[in-house]
Amino acid sequence: MDNNQFPEEGDLVLCKVKEIHKTTVFVSLDAYGRTGVIATSEIAPGRIRNIRDYVVVNKKIICKVLRIDRNTGHIDLSLRRVTQKETREEMQKYKNEEIALKLLGIVVGKDAEKIAQEIKKDYPLLHQFFESSIPKPEILESYLTKEDAKKLLAIISDKIKAKKISAKATISVSSTEPNGIVLIKNALLKQKDVKINYIGAPNYTITAEDENHKVAHKKLETAIASIIDSLKHHGKVEVVKND
Questions:
Q1: What are the φ/ψ torsions at residue 53 (nearest 5 degrees)?
Q2: How far apart are the C-alpha atoms of 51 and 80, rounded to whole Å?
Q3: 122 Cβ contact list (under 8 Å, min separation 6)
Q4: 79 and 44 in contact (C-beta within 8 Å)?
Q5: What is the pTM of this model?
Q6: Based on the domain organization, do 146 and 184 belong to the same domain?
Q7: Which residues, 6 or more positions from 227, have their beta carbon under 8 angstroms from its beta carbon?
């Protein structure tokens, strides 16, 4: 562990509750080899009658980094400033990392931790690296022998599903033609690579998905262009919002 390694202020970090005092909770940040402190006022909003209603020794929690003193190593944390959604997402992230490390260990054994650290110099998360390697298996060979890369690819292709990237837009579609509704419906039904949902006249959402960010956006742009082309003489199509 690098003794100079710190999280950044504002980061969400996985912590393990070590000690609970009357006004303070001490936690370990195992990813950094450090200890953090949560003041009572940062445990939960409102008045706290019993701090143990919110934190339990040895339980893992997600906290936000408030302040860091790199000279003393002191780290102030907050539990109350982390939303339930952020907690779910971060916990899932760490579970995914544990799974990814175990899969790597199946192939390389005791060297798994060492190789994982090398990968994380280039990729923030091991699990994300594995997702990226499914469509581009050659990147595995940057960290593993060709034989081990082949073995690992077979395992992760079976155990890890490449995450889909979504590209989304809201469009406004209208027509003054007598059969405008039919024209609009036909123009929308022609689009096979996207999902289209009606959200209230005259608006629709269009969503495209792919494992590649650029491809997802290209599918979205192509669908919108196709709808515009189909209705160019019969109506109006306007992009209201891109997400």
A1: -75, -15
A2: 12
A3: 129
A4: yes
A5: 0.60
A6: no
A7: 171, 173, 187, 188, 190, 191, 237
Number of CB atoms found within 10 A of residue 140's CB: 24
Does a structural domain hold residue 67? Answer: yes
Whether 228 maps to a domain, the answer reads yes
Residues 55 and 107 in one domain: no
Residue range of the domain that includes 77:
12-82
**Does 4 reside within a domain?**
no
Has residue 35 been placed in a domain? yes
Choose the final residue of a domain: 59, 82, 105: 82
Residue whose entry in the numeric block shows the structure tokens 């400033």:
81
- How many CB atoms are located within 10 Å of the residue 139 CB? 16
Structure tokens at 56: 């339990």
Tens digit of pLDDT for each residue in 70-124?
999 999 999 999 999 999 999 999 999 999 999 999 999 999 999 999 998 888 8
CA distance 140 to 103: 13
Residue at token pair 């599918």: 219
3-state secondary structure of 35: strand
Beta strands 34-39; 74-78: pairing state: parallel
Same domain, 17 and 30: yes
Q: Please, are residues 103 and 140 in contact by the beta-carbon 8 Å criterion?
A: no
**Tens digit of pLDDT for each residue in 84-96?**
999 999 999 999 9
Domain boundary among 101, 127, 159: 159
